[in-house]
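Our platform keeps sequence and structure together, in a single record for each protein. Because each token names a local backbone shape, the row as a whole describes the fold. One such record is reproduced below, unchanged from the form in which we store it:
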Amino acid sequence: MIAPRYEPALLVLFVLLSFSCVPAAAYSEEAARAFSEGNDLVLAGDYYGGAASFDRAILLEPGFFEAWDRKADALNRAGELSEAQKAVEKSVEINPEYVRGWINRGQILYNIGYYYEDVAGDPKKAEEYYLDQLLSFEQAIQLDPGNAEARFNRGYALAGMKRYDEALAEFARVRNLDPAYPNLALSEKQARVLRDAATPWYIQYALPLAALVFIVILIVAYFVLVRQWNATQKDPAAPENRRTRRRKEQ
């Protein structure tokens, strides 16, 4: 197993957002209570206990897509990535318009991709998961274009795939939606640093180099023309010099 990677501020934000949308009316009181207990356990760091509580809610209400999603999140935090993926797939299968589910799916796929890249040493398999996670965030954005979290995750995913200019463009959209979004400034800075490090120096400085070459060409052309003009003035065989000499003789 591999522990999923989370930025602390994003972890707290994710948990708070999840807890702020506790369903109640659509499900039985007992299922809602199990769901709430699961949230409390996850917040306390008991991920397996939280997953067990969500399982109780699901047993009572099999269509409880929020519980499937929260179970996936708990298992993701516990490093049970395969089971987490199964749970989140069930969540978005029950409700394909559940934005939180698509975001969570993308985060789980990111962690699986990271496992294949850094632990299993299988970059090709990792790339498959990274591409799939990007599609999850894009699905969330399609459902809710103003969702700053979905857009931030898409930017983060693009940066991880070395598509830095696209990542920076997405981070700019996040800034327009929520200037105080956690870790936004740091992520933008990291994306710029990585982009510059990956760009050859001759491409980074192509414009100033082209301008310098142009100036040098102008200078050389100027001196060549001046030299030609001076040579013409000194050449007695030049037509203009012959006319000047005849006028003097007359």
